[in-house]
Amino acid sequence: MSEDLQPTVDPTKMGVGRSIAVLTSGGDAQGMNAAVRATVRVGIYTGAKVYFVHEGYQGLVDGGENICLATWESVSMMLQLGGTVIGSARCKDFRTRDGRMKAACNLVKLGITNLCVIGGDGSLTGANEFRTEWSGLLVDLVRAGKITEEEAKKSSHLNIVGMVGSIDNDFCGTDMTIGTDSALHRIIEVVDAITTTAQSHQRTFILEVMGRHCGYLALVTALACGADWVFIPEMPPDDGWEDHLCRRLSDQRARGSRLNVIIVAEGAMCKDGKPITSDQIKKLVTDRLGFDTRTTVLGHVQRGGTPSAFDRILGSRMGVEAVMALLEATPDTPACVVTLSGNQAVRLPLMECVQVTKEVTAAMAQGRFDDAIKLRGKSFENNWNTYKLLAHINPPDTKSNINVAIMNIGAPCAGMNAAVRAAVRMGIIQGHSMLGVHEGFDGLAQGQIEPIIWTSVSGWTGKGGSMLGTKRTLPGKRLEEISQNIAKFNIHALVIIGGFEAYVGGLELVQAREKYEEMCIPIVVIPATVSNNVPGSDFSIGADTALNTITSTCDRIKQSAAGTKRRVFIVETMGGYCGYLATMAGLAAGADAAYIFEEKFDIKDLEANVQHMVEKMKTTVKRGLVLRNENCNSNYTTDFIFNLYSEEGKGIFDCRKNVLGHMQQGGTPTPFDRNFGTKMGAKAVLWLTDKLKECYRHGRIFANTADSACVLGMRKRALTFQPLAELKEDTDFERRIPKIQWWLKIRPIMKILAKYDIKLDTSEHADLEHVIKKSSFLGK
């Protein structure tokens, strides 16, 4: 809602006198609990009464104890649980008018006129039908004497808001549904484990993942593990695929690969609609090639386990948005669904999304497979195109005579190698010769540069750290040697993958163009750092992996505190001066406070936080979690805050502290970082290829314009290239952070969910958009 239209709305009074019911329906998905928790707590924050509906629509029909009042404490400790705590059930009764009449009667008796449904497209369609019939159901209930005229008048209109909980990511209009990222975590854990055993025995592994009508999980898994082949329902293989597949597998073995991985969606089929099963593929590979082949069907493992940090944040943000959408709805507002586009929470008309989702199925049934992929949205289409480019094309016979160098700068982070691999392979596909620079700018100055070929980067997507080697050194003092090596190795373009040093280093090279003509080559910087502090991008590669590491550690810490009771943990996170990790981990782990540099705090704030903790210990939730960014304040150190809480909490709670340290930079990359890195690496090289054509003058490359040296970043809903020089205005070089950071707007949500009485800015809340206009970024 825009501020000038509703300047007087006080969010803490929006829900007074209103009642909201929340239910989960259909197949369960990790992250549903985060959405339920946020809906309950934000509902209570607005002054509304919030009810749980247990067992989905069945509970709505049966009523009684299935619909019960939720309290603040009743959603405590559910953030890290998979599945849905309030239960879900397939419900035949709700499909009949009689069943819906019982459900309406139960809601009217409790004065509930706002319903928040978390489920798949079937569940959401059911909710919309319920809303459309509502007034008719009330008339029948009054006629049957089940409710009074007065009760019907009070509940004359039902508001519906949906959130999509589905591990298949099969709902059009959103980049990600709740549960998809966690399902990918489960799949990738298995793929990584299988890869090690397959390499030992030179085996071919066929992995079947869920997705009866949607190939998203299979496609992203194939991208994230560099699979040799993927079968998805949206794009059946061409006729004669059997020969093509066997040729591909043989080629990979001939190139020295010790394993083959084939990913199959459970709904995979031929162009004539006949299913393609993993057993069928196994028989083909064994009979034709004689390869030792194994099949693994993942099944319900994908639905299980703890939700990823991404799903917890997604569920929490969607829950907040859903409550606001319900309380702002009028009888004329169509039922809406809260979706994700880039990093924006967006409201879309529910039935428009359902309609497009149904059109995908229709397109597949009619054999219009290109349309099916387009209808799935930009995100799916980009994934498919990237996969095809990186897996399906043999390098061209004609070379471009272009040499592209790739380097890592700054601290290592998970996902760097995925970006290097994608850049190398995309470069080779474009006909370029690729050069790997070891040890950052030092390596460029010392000539530690060597050719890097297709097989050099095999298996790199799943490896943490930096295989090329990385250093924090900037090029400023070694420009002479660097320019000599650019000339000596005939480097025509440069890909720099790294953190804030990568940005500053790139800037130094651009500023040196006046003196050194060798620096007049196209340069692209790909942000990769756990701190997420590179100007020009809302996300950087590596931050998601670090966030998951911090979140899972905080889960364990909270569990230990729940056992001992009355214990508060102070946890220090990395990030330099950037509070992204502390804030997002605070939201994902359910922290009581997160101290960061960007939001100034003084002793009064610290006292208020301690007092808040003292009050919390009087409730049934007897534990606390406080996060502190490493550089949030030079005087209020982790030790200081620990001592303060220890002293003030004497006799009420005791304290422990943890400094997480370098474990945040390690680990295998998450599916998000693998996929994000792969897309960034591929897109960067395609951009360089176009730039090189523009800069080709009189038989040589000469690039000295500002737009020939860019940061490739994700901005709101798209991947964009922004000149390094233009971003100087937006950068605080002393503190090494961008001046404006989008995630600061999410901080109030964390505080409200921790029961702080603060004002939530409703001015930026998403107005209703339309599916057709929507253009999403590149998906996860």
TrEMBL record:
<dbReference type="GO" id="GO:0046872">
    <property type="term" value="F:metal ion binding"/>
</dbReference>
<dbReference type="GO" id="GO:0016208">
    <property type="term" value="F:AMP binding"/>
</dbReference>
<feature type="binding site">
    <location>
        <position position="656"/>
    </location>
    <ligand>
        <name>beta-D-fructose 2,6-bisphosphate</name>
    </ligand>
</feature>
<dbReference type="Pfam" id="PF00365">
    <property type="entry name" value="PFK"/>
</dbReference>
<keyword id="KW-0479">Metal-binding</keyword>
<feature type="binding site" description="in other chain">
    <location>
        <position position="630"/>
    </location>
    <ligand>
        <name>beta-D-fructose 2,6-bisphosphate</name>
    </ligand>
</feature>
<feature type="binding site" description="in other chain">
    <location>
        <position position="736"/>
    </location>
    <ligand>
        <name>beta-D-fructose 2,6-bisphosphate</name>
    </ligand>
</feature>
<dbReference type="InterPro" id="IPR015912">
    <property type="entry name" value="Phosphofructokinase_CS"/>
</dbReference>
<dbReference type="InterPro" id="IPR000023">
    <property type="entry name" value="Phosphofructokinase_dom"/>
</dbReference>
<dbReference type="GO" id="GO:0042802">
    <property type="term" value="F:identical protein binding"/>
</dbReference>
<dbReference type="GO" id="GO:0048029">
    <property type="term" value="F:monosaccharide binding"/>
</dbReference>
<feature type="binding site" description="in other chain">
    <location>
        <begin position="166"/>
        <end position="168"/>
    </location>
    <ligand>
        <name>substrate</name>
    </ligand>
</feature>
<feature type="binding site">
    <location>
        <begin position="90"/>
        <end position="91"/>
    </location>
    <ligand>
        <name>ATP</name>
    </ligand>
</feature>
<comment type="similarity">
    <text>Belongs to the phosphofructokinase type A (PFKA) family. ATP-dependent PFK group I subfamily. Eukaryotic two domain clade "E" sub-subfamily.</text>
</comment>
<feature type="binding site" description="in other chain">
    <location>
        <position position="472"/>
    </location>
    <ligand>
        <name>beta-D-fructose 2,6-bisphosphate</name>
    </ligand>
</feature>
<feature type="binding site">
    <location>
        <position position="27"/>
    </location>
    <ligand>
        <name>ATP</name>
    </ligand>
</feature>
<keyword id="KW-0418">Kinase</keyword>
<dbReference type="InterPro" id="IPR009161">
    <property type="entry name" value="6-Pfructokinase_euk"/>
</dbReference>
<keyword id="KW-0460">Magnesium</keyword>
<dbReference type="GO" id="GO:0030388">
    <property type="term" value="P:fructose 1,6-bisphosphate metabolic process"/>
</dbReference>
<dbReference type="InterPro" id="IPR041914">
    <property type="entry name" value="PFK_vert-type"/>
</dbReference>
<keyword id="KW-0808">Transferase</keyword>
<dbReference type="GO" id="GO:0070095">
    <property type="term" value="F:fructose-6-phosphate binding"/>
</dbReference>
<feature type="domain" description="Phosphofructokinase">
    <location>
        <begin position="20"/>
        <end position="325"/>
    </location>
</feature>
<feature type="binding site" description="in other chain">
    <location>
        <position position="266"/>
    </location>
    <ligand>
        <name>substrate</name>
    </ligand>
</feature>
<feature type="binding site">
    <location>
        <position position="294"/>
    </location>
    <ligand>
        <name>substrate</name>
    </ligand>
</feature>
<comment type="subunit">
    <text>Homo- and heterotetramers.</text>
</comment>
<keyword id="KW-0324">Glycolysis</keyword>
<dbReference type="GO" id="GO:0061621">
    <property type="term" value="P:canonical glycolysis"/>
</dbReference>
<keyword id="KW-0379">Hydroxylation</keyword>
<feature type="binding site" description="in other chain">
    <location>
        <begin position="300"/>
        <end position="303"/>
    </location>
    <ligand>
        <name>substrate</name>
    </ligand>
</feature>
<dbReference type="GO" id="GO:0016020">
    <property type="term" value="C:membrane"/>
</dbReference>
<dbReference type="GO" id="GO:0006002">
    <property type="term" value="P:fructose 6-phosphate metabolic process"/>
</dbReference>
<feature type="binding site" description="in other chain">
    <location>
        <begin position="662"/>
        <end position="665"/>
    </location>
    <ligand>
        <name>beta-D-fructose 2,6-bisphosphate</name>
    </ligand>
</feature>
<feature type="binding site">
    <location>
        <position position="203"/>
    </location>
    <ligand>
        <name>substrate</name>
    </ligand>
</feature>
<keyword id="KW-0021">Allosteric enzyme</keyword>
<keyword id="KW-0007">Acetylation</keyword>
<feature type="binding site">
    <location>
        <position position="567"/>
    </location>
    <ligand>
        <name>beta-D-fructose 2,6-bisphosphate</name>
    </ligand>
</feature>
<dbReference type="GO" id="GO:0003872">
    <property type="term" value="F:6-phosphofructokinase activity"/>
</dbReference>
<feature type="binding site" description="in other chain">
    <location>
        <begin position="574"/>
        <end position="576"/>
    </location>
    <ligand>
        <name>beta-D-fructose 2,6-bisphosphate</name>
    </ligand>
</feature>
<comment type="similarity">
    <text>Belongs to the phosphofructokinase type A (PFKA) family. ATP-dependent PFK group I subfamily. Eukaryotic two domain clade 'E' sub-subfamily.</text>
</comment>
<dbReference type="GO" id="GO:0005524">
    <property type="term" value="F:ATP binding"/>
</dbReference>
